[in-house]
Amino acid sequence: MQxxxxxLVWSAAxxxxxxxxxxxxxxxxLQSTTQTAPAAAVTDSAAAGAAASHAISPATAPNYRxxxxxxxxxxxxxxxxxxxDTSAQEFNFGGPFGDNDNPLSQFFRGLPHPxxxxxxxxxxxxxxxxxxxxxxxxxxxxxxAKEVTVKLxxxxxxxxxxxxxxxxxxxxxxxxxxxxxxxxxxxxxxxxHVGDYVLAIGEPFGLEETATAGIVSAKGRSLPGDGxxxxxxxxxxxxxxxxxxxxxxxxxxxxxxNAQIYSNSGGYQGVSFAIPINLAMQVKDQIVKTGKVAHxxxxxxxxxxxxxxxxxxxxxAPNGALVAKVEPDSAAAQAGLKxxxxxxxxxxxPIVDAGQLSARVGAVAPGDKVSLKxxxxxxxxxxxxxxxxxxxxxxxxxxxxxxxxxxxxxxAVRPLNPDERQQAGVSGGLIVxxxxxxxxxxxxxxxxxxxxxxxxxxxxxxxxxxxxxxxDKQVALLIQRxxxxxxxxxxxx
Length: 493
Fold this sequence. Notes:
- The chain folds into 3 domains: 1-8 and 59-290, Beta Barrel (Thrombin, subunit H); 296-389, PDZ domain (Pdz3 Domain, Roll); 393-491, PDZ domain (Pdz3 Domain), CATH 2.30.42.
- It is flat, with a radius of gyration of 25 Å.
- Helices cover 19% and strands 35% of the residues.
- 41% of the residues are buried.
- By secondary structure, it is an alpha+beta fold.
């Protein structure tokens, strides 16, 4: 399965390769310099002692061999098959960067899926988190898949059931019918620091049990179109097929799920991104327990400050998230937030830019009470809010005839909010958040609005569930896409 990346053109003349043939550590080089300096240069012994106290001892590299030997049996390959969209372009834009109406989409490139007799086949990675067959991977690995196959390191293959796939966090949970399986150890992504060693295991280009290593390059990265996930940036080599595979720390514990790359070629160019495992496990637990994922919602639109805006608001530094819109009846509105406020802290955590606020909100649960430090009228003020919940999304499920009605359709839907209804020019309906199975085969896409079932207007998820439950084989959905409407027959699972 492809890993999405950003097209970025760098000047070759602007890149410098710096190396040393001596193999000396930084501390050794510093020490050598001090020893060869003229004696007259050292005039203050106290200052020399202070400088020496800041010398950094070289760290011992982790035992990568042991990490691989302990965990490779718990890393799986994932193969998917789905119906081919003959109207699709050769390059598939997926996930958060996949909206072709999004002006940023021109910078993001996917890789073409191999095609065969009207079906698409793709590969990805995953890992076992429980001995009874629970597998974690990326949602974009199984997006639109009609069949999902999990292959273990001993080459045994199992048909997998998609328990749930959350597009917002790009996390999917699979289940295979097997027991007493090897599992990985889950770590704490909050304990990662820039410079820490990491190791990735996956199946790039279908090459099984491939291990690559690097360091944590940055934390809390907010990528365009996907501010909810505070990505871990690494320089571990990640390529198409690594999607959904684990990222291990120096102790051999999983701290992330490899998800994306930054590239102008579609392949690895030194910048990779992983979803923090703490976030992934929160999503996994919700899917396993309830079959759906609830995301917290503050109810504001924010933008990142620049120096000019900071000067306009009489701020010393351009840090914080500038509130551009407050949604009526939202948690933000009830807390008293106003347009023009700058959110400086969320629950005691500094907010440097708009993307960081999205990540902080995503880390709490709907209904949690949070504190906000806000810059308003030239001074700081504190207020409290009870975060709301984004409209619940029915999680896509690859169930059979006895599955829930939403699973039989293959749709994940939610009611439109007032702004969306006004923009679409409708009084009701349900917006499609995710689509799989028969609905995907029928041509329904995320962003479509379901207006009616067999001519009966639909206003709620519960109503749609009841309507589908009353049908045995097929329903006719009235779909609005942009300004066009069309009835689409969908076979029920």
